[in-house]
């Protein structure tokens, strides 16, 4: 009886291992853009989440070009970068969304793209809503954040 139970456990373990490894071969192509780690949308949300909610510049730099990474580093903290470069201060707990009103903005170039991110958050007990355009460059097959522009909808 004891050998039968051990054999049954071994069969279940092998079967479970096969199921787990079979699922690992799936590509990210079937995921929605905001959940696909290779997509610009995901990388933009990840970047701003690191800046505003986690206050972690090292994490924010994971999906940036070397040029932008040096700029971020020069400010020392996520809060300083957000204040002086992005000109958008927010308390942690920012809600980030992809602006789908114009879908993905394309430039006609296969190695450049841009998307708009909507920010909803608080600063000193006041509600703040804003938009930033994130510009990407494809380098070595990876979409990296190259620059961030002010609200593309604002009237100047």
What is the topology?
Blueprint: H1 2-23, H2 40-54, H3 57-60, H4 66-75, H5 78-84, E1 95-98, E2 105-106, E3 112-123, E4 126-139, E5 142-149
Antiparallel strand pairs: 1-3, 2-3, 3-4, 4-5
Task: Report on the architecture of this protein.
This protein is of the alpha+beta class. The protein has one domain (32-149): Nuclear Transport Factor 2, Chain: A. 37% of the residues lie in helices and 26% in strands. Strands 1, 2, 3, 4 and 5 form a 5-stranded antiparallel β-sheet that branches. Strand 4 and strand 5 form a beta hairpin. The longest helix has 22 residues, at 2-23. The protein is globular.
Number of domains: 1
Principal-axes geometry comes out as globular
**Rg over C-alpha atoms, rounded to the nearest angstrom:** 21 Å
**Helical proportion, percent range:** 25-40%
Order of helices and strands: HHHHHEEEEE
Mean pLDDT: 81
Described by its quaternary structure, the protein is single chain
Q: Main sheet, how many strands, which sense, barrel?
A: 5 strands, antiparallel
- N-end to C-end Cα span: 81 Å
The CATH class: Alpha Beta
Q: Which parts are unreliable, with pLDDT below 50 for 5 consecutive residues or more?
A: none
Number of helices: 5
The percent range for strand residues is 25-35%
Q: Indicate the CATH architecture.
A: Roll
**Which structural class matches the secondary elements?**
alpha+beta
The third-level CATH topology is Nuclear Transport Factor 2, Chain: A
According to DSSP, the number of beta strands is 5
